Amino acid sequence: MPRIVKTQYEYEGRIREQITVVEEDDLPRWGEEAQLRLVGRPQPRVDGEARVTGAARYTADIDLPGMLFAKVLRSPHARARVRRIDTSKAEALPGVRLVLTADNLPPGILKKGPAPLVKEVRFFGEEVALVVADEEETAYDALRLIDVDYEVLPPVLTWEEALAEGAPRVTEQGNVEGGQPVIKTYGDVERGLAEADVVIERTYTTQVELHNALEPHGTVALWEGDRLTVWESTQSVSGVRKGLAQAYGLPDEDVRVICEYMGGGFGAKFGPHRHTHLAVIAARILGRPVRLVLDRRDEDLATGNRPATVQKLRIGAKRDGTLTAIDLVSYQIQGAGGTGGAVGGPARDQYRCPNVRTVEYGVYTNAGPSTSFRAPGYPEGAFALESALDELAQELGLDPLELRRRNFTDRRRDGKRYAQNSFLEAYEVGAKAFGWSGRPQPPDPAELWRRRERGEPLVVRGVGVAAGMWGSAGWPPAYAWVQLHHDGTATVTSATQDIGTGTKTALAMVAAEELGYRLDDIRMRFGDTVMAPWGTGSGGSGTTSSMAPAVRAAAADARRQLLQLVADYFGVSPEQVELRDGVLRVQGAAEGGGAVERRVAEFFRDIGPINIVGRGGRAPNPADLAAISIAVHFAEVSVDVQTGRVAVERILAVHESGRVINPLTMTAQIEGGVLFGVGFALTEERRLDPRRGWVLNPDLENYKILTVKDAPRIETIVLDRPDDQLNNSAVKGIGEPPVIPPAAAIANAVHNATGLRFRDLPITPEKVLAALAAAGRAAGGRAAEKEGVRPR
User: Quick check: 654 and 469 in contact, CB under 8 A?
Assistant: First the structure.
């Protein structure tokens, strides 16, 4: 029976409350004692063949009769005002059907929200005009014929400039998100610092990182009367439908959103974007379908990023390692009106500490707006916190792992107990597997520099460790249907999506397990909002932990209906009917009281047409518990002292995320997350011209993501610990946690290898050589002063 509840859940490090409709959930939990056939065993992806053979259709593959192609003209300035725009030459080009600017956008089509084309430019690459043409090449040619006269204005590019008195306003709201920082205080930080035996005060900085999903953003829009169909590369088909319905004043039922397959999003593909609205508006004006797919340059300029941070951190501790205070002031440089993550999340919740304060500024500058990016805020926050703990351990003469053990906590900062916190087990298991027995003292970097100056080939090695956590309980609303078919197959339907992570496979396994069907007999109908119940978006590591309980409930409902039909047919009770691998076994149905076996398809042929549809929804989270997935990563690096190059030789990743549905896809998620983290630590950085705000590397040649050659040896240990206090499937999320610890673990290992502490990401060869040279000069100066010689 549906009921209305107020539920609370953690999403991307922030606590949310909402009113929602949920279903009763009386299923026995899949705890550790549950005996399962499929769940927990590795299974290849159910859509793997379609993906590798090219049969899978992505948004860019959609080709409709009469379809037109759109391209966007982007500003070549970071801050400017459009004084005049001449589109006459573009409009005269054969094959051009429409040219739109902020001046001629028809009023009344878009009923809610900002216009998707601008006259006041706030960042390099912002949308100024749109061309729609018969061919994609024609649209590109027409863009070059548009003449724009800009009044170029001085951009605000750094957080210091943005917060300076009298700084130009980047947005109407000012240069700070919400007008004020987000401040959270627990206890008395100043008192905690005064009580500490050791206090460290450090500043850490991280760079802007670009998503660079393999599939770019894209939209195909088709109007049929007042009904709108949109093919969109999105992490939430239900969310895009809701956003479009609100923006164009339509009932939800008149908007259909389709995302059959997707090539990654990493947080950048939620809701309708400007390109979505441009395709929808153009299609409405022209009465023909319009396709607008961004190219790589568009992606890297205007679809979001992980914001840069400046983090000022103070930590106090007693001599035995007990933390007395954590004080963080962070600045997220979010570009022109972007959104940031919870950088203070790790500082607040990962360790036991009586006095904690986090002050988080979101700072607006004239650069591409930031957005959610796989574990928003947490890789940045963990880099600072976990590096600082490494420095603190060194000051205290403690093993870094032991320092973390001594400050283990079993509850969130708001007092809610964690349903499960496996950090202590992960420390122990990981240390044993990695061979961690404390760390050797780092070398003198000045001596490394002297040996380099003598031309000695020298590669040094070091090890490091870091931990990360992520709230990952899942949430309602999330609904699913399971329909049984006459041929013995079943279809799982929900308006959710598989963004490339293996969601279809995991949820097919859940359905097959609960139904008693074979996995091959399960069909998945995801990525389409028509005739489908609301499905959750793929973000916050919440897809499987939200949808698996709903799918299991729907499958259980379908199974109950089937077993009742079988029982009625044979004149027995439902308790006498078993269903396993698609085979019914009915006790007491044969002559003499024996059992009858029959395949589901055979039974359905005997009884004629059927209409069995199971319905299920996700129950609310427990009101008195919090949920986290945890990660502990151990890193081994080598550093070439001649070139400054850091190579990650080995990462051991220990993870606990509740019950493991599919070990194969879970391991793939961990390995992919580790590679993200290695790139964040060593190579990836969006670079801006410091005066003009131009993006200097909006392509995959100059923006350095890892290649296969760069990948380290990755070993994974998955602690399969069903968290059955949370939901009927005992599952939590895994998408974000692997991204969180790698950068800090690598930085700590580089310090162990070289004696150099890098507090600014990425750790590039240039930075390594500069730090070695500085250490050499400093040592030379100290030696000269000792000899009584004044250094030049």
Answer: no
18-24 long-range Cβ contacts below 8 angstroms, 24+ apart: 20/476, 20/477, 20/620, 21/476, 21/477, 21/617, 22/476, 22/477, 22/617, 22/618, 22/619, 22/620, 23/479, 23/550, 23/553, 23/615, 23/616, 23/617, 23/618, 23/619, 24/619
Distance CA 276, CA 436 (A): 51
DSSP symbols for 606-665:
HH----EEEEEEPPPPPTTEE-EEEEEEEEEEEEETTT--EEEEEEEEEEE-BS-S-HHH
CA nearest to 13, candidates 325, 467, 340, 307:
340
pTM of the complete model: 0.96
Mean pLDDT of the chain: 95
- What integer is the mean pLDDT of 566-576? 96
Contact, 74 vs 302, CB < 8 A?
yes
d(CA 491, CA 523): 5
Query: Which pLDDT score, from 0 to 100, does residue 786 have?
Result: 54
Question: Cα 721 to chain center, whole Å?
Answer: 23
Structure tokens of 68?
């037109």
Cβ count near 549 (within 10 Å): 30
Q: What is the pLDDT of residue 8?
A: 81
> Reduced to 3 states, what is the DSSP secondary structure of residue 131?
strand
Compute the CA torsion angle 444, 449, 450, 454 (nearest 10 deg). Answer: 140
- Cβ neighbours, 10 Å, residue 425: 15
Q: Give the rounded percent of residues in the chain with a pLDDT score beyond 70.
A: 98
Per-residue tokens: 72: 């966007």
Integer Cα distance of 631 and 650 in angstroms: 16
Q: How many residues does the chain have?
A: 792
- Mean pLDDT of the region 586-602: 90
Active-site option among 232, 253, 736, 787: 736
Strands, E, within 365-518: which ranges?
417-418, 459-471, 479-484, 490-493
Specify the residue for token string 């502990």. Answer: 632
Of 80, 73, 85, nearest to 148 (Cα)? 85
- Decide if 669 contacts 506 (C-beta within 8 A): no
Give me Rg for the CA atoms of the chain: 29
Cα dihedral 649→655→661→667 (10° resolution): -10
Residue that has been written with the tokens 């009580």 in this structure: 195
Reply yes or no on whether 701 is catalytic.
Answer: no
Contact of 740 with 470, CB cutoff 8 Å: yes
Query: Residue type for 476, please?
Result: P
Distances (CA, A) of 556 to 27, 334, 482, 514, 754: 8, 45, 9, 6, 58
- CA distances in angstroms from 288 to 4, 78, 117, 143, 735, listed in the order given: 42, 34, 21, 21, 38
CA–CA separation, 54 vs 48, rounded Å? Answer: 10
Asked if 247 contacts 111 with a C-beta cutoff of 8 angstroms, the reply is: yes
Contact of 371 with 267, CB cutoff 8 Å: yes
Name the residue with tokens 């392509």. 699
Q: What is the pLDDT of residues 342-359, one digit of tens each?
A: 999 999 999 999 999 999
Residues 487-509, mean pLDDT to the nearest whole number:
97
Note whether 352 and 407 are within 8 A (CB). yes
